[in-house]
Specification:
The chain starts with a helix and ends with a helix. By secondary structure, it is mostly helical. The chain has a single domain, classed as Serine Threonine Protein Phosphatase 5, Tetratricopeptide repeat (Alpha Horseshoe).
Length: 106
């Protein structure tokens, strides 16, 4: 099971201490990888620690601007409303056509 899958499960189960340990280990082992920072941002958002979460999304973006989940989550959590669901994986960064059409009707 990947670190992303493990973190997603721990966040869903609200096991934040375990999740933080997992993510911190990943950050230590892969200091230039955006994935652990994106995961930390998602965990912190789940704990309603928005400002800290945004720092990690920005760090992930700074490490690799091509890593789509970090820019997706920056957009998702930076406004007053969530324009789309958050992203754990790159394939989560897809707006479904029916949602896009609904947005165009407004």
């Amino acid at each position: 099971m990947s670190t992303i899958e493990q973190a997603k499960g721990l966040i869903a189960e609200r096991k934040f201490k375990e999740c933080e340990a997992l993510i911190c280990t990943a950050m230590f082992e892969h200091p230039h990888d955006p994935i652990p920072h994106n995961l930390m941002g998602l965990m912190l958002e789940s704990e309603h620690r928005h400002l800290e979460a945004m720092k990690h999304f920005r760090a992930a973006y700074a490490l690799d601007p091509t890593y789509r989940p970090s820019s997706w989550n920056l957009e998702c959590f930076s406004g007053f409303t969530m324009p789309h669901p958050c992203a754990f994986f790159a394939n989560d960064c897809v707006i479904h056509p029916e949602k896009e059409q609904e947005g165009n009707l407004k």
